[in-house]
Structure formats: structure tokens, C-alpha cells
Amino acid sequence: MVQTGLHHVTAFSGPALRNLDFHTRILGLRLVKKTVNFDDPGTYHLYYGDAAGQPGTILTFFPIEHAAPGRAGIGETQETAFRVPRASIGWWTHRLIEKGVAHEPLVQVFGAPTLRFRDPDGMMLALVGVDIGDAAGWASSEVPAEHAIRGLHGVTLLLDKAEPTAAILTEVLGLQEVGREGSLIRFAGSAELGGLVTLRAVGGFLPGRAGAGSVHHIAFRAADDAAQAAMGRALEARGLHVTEQRDRQYFRSIYFREPGGVLFEIATDAPGFAVDEPVEALGQALKLPAALEPHRAEIEAVLPKVA
User: Fold this and answer.
1) What are phi and psi of 245, to 5 degrees?
2) Are 129 and 113 in contact (CB under 8 A)?
3) Torsion over CA of 133, 137, 139 and 145, rounded to 10 degrees?
4) pLDDT digits (tens, 9 = 90+) for 31-84
5) Which of 132, 261, 275, 296 is spaced 20 to 30 Å from 111 by Cα?
């Protein structure tokens, strides 16, 4: 069965070490790849996910030491949500309190308990309690496997109008509308992890401004190059500009800006994060693509030290 939904979410952050500490220690995610921004190799690109770094579990960051904060607004991702076992929401509430992480009161969204909070750069995150089978998640030093984040639940996009974006989700990216609640319209793909995209149309708000805590882009899954190319042709037929394919080492990507202004990527599932290091060693060493390997010494000299 073709898996449709999110591949990953990529955001900007402030200092790399602070970002790494929050997402691996506080949230218990696994650092599955430590590399650099291929377009700006003086900056890290950190990938967090589940034990194997599966598509649909990945949140990535471009950490910039002295980044100015972003501004929330239309044409951007308002919230990035993870899924946890429904019975673990209480455990996570106590953990956020214990760790001094400010959070909002627990609410029900589309029938699921939802715990919203912000990371140190102000990025809006949420934990959503869902019914999960017996499979345990990645066990970190502080988050036991039974309570672990399993992967992405979905994203909420803040838009002027929902209809043009909805057409792209359903006619090109393989999602379908599954519900409405207040100002929210929810779409689902076939993937269990990262399958949901929710649109919130709010009219004439200010546009968002990129910066620490803001999402740079969201990536959707393509089974292979052929499926990706077909999506690209469908987008171009609708008058949207699509980039050439770019090799990101762990997937191959095309990019376009959807009608609501959010930057979308379509990323192939293959080859995955174990292409240049074994699964058991993911995230431990700085990995560079072949073109940047001759410059490793200069790159390592300017990158801040992280574990």
C-alpha cells in the first residue's frame, strides 16, 4: 500500500546544543542524523525521529546561534504535533511540569487529548494521545519506551483561505478530508505516522516571518522517483513552480510553494538514514555528503560543539 502523508517537518532554531538537549532529553526523541545544511554547510542540520528514523517520525532543525525569533502568521505551519499513547498524556503533563516547560491546559481536538507547549525557541508543539498497539517506542535515558513519542501526528497550517491548499492536498498529495471542527479542516493520508494535515483559515492576519521557532517547510512522502515526478507534473499543470530534484543524501526532494504560501517538499522514502551509518549508530558522527567531505576540517572548525 502506498503511504501518503508527511515525511518530515523542518524548522529553524536558536543554539544547537539547547535544541539538542530539549528534543533528545526532554522529549526523548532519537537524534537520527547529525549533518549540515547542504546549502549552507556552516550550519548544522539535525534530524530527530524514532529508533529507525522512519518517514513520518522526523522533525529536523537548522540551528542558528543568534537567530532572531520568527513571527506567527498566515502562510506557515502553526503547530507540529506528535503522537503518544493515550494513556501517557498524564505522564507527559507531569513531565512538562517537572521540567519547567510551560504548557496549555489539556484540550480535546477531533476527539483526542492534546497537550500544547513550546520549545525553547517558541515553536508550537503538541502531544496527542492516540490508541497505539503494543509496539514500544524509542527508550531514551529519561523517557521510558512505553511513554515514548511514536512519531508525527500531523501539522496545522495557518492560512488566509483553505480551499486552494485543500485542492493540492487531495488532488496531488493523496490526502482526503476526514473532518471539520470549528475553523479546522482535517485531511488524512494512508500512513499511520504523520498522516494528518489540518487547515485553519483565519482571513487577513499578518503573514508569518521566518526565524527561530518557525517552520521552514513540511515534506510529504513519495514512494519513489516516479511517484515524485508524477506529483511534480500534476503541480506544474496547475501553474505552480516546482524545483528540480535535489539529492538530500537520505531522500530526494522537489519543492514548491502551495497557494496559501507554505513551502512544501515532496521527499522519497528511499534511501533512508541508514545509507551512510548503521541503524544502531545513527546520529553519533557528523555525516557529510561526498561533495563536502574534502572540506570536513573547515566545516568542523566553524560548527558549535555538540554531543
Assistant:
1) -70, 135
2) yes
3) -20
4) 999 999 999 999 999 999 999 999 999 999 999 999 999 998 999 999 999 999
5) 261
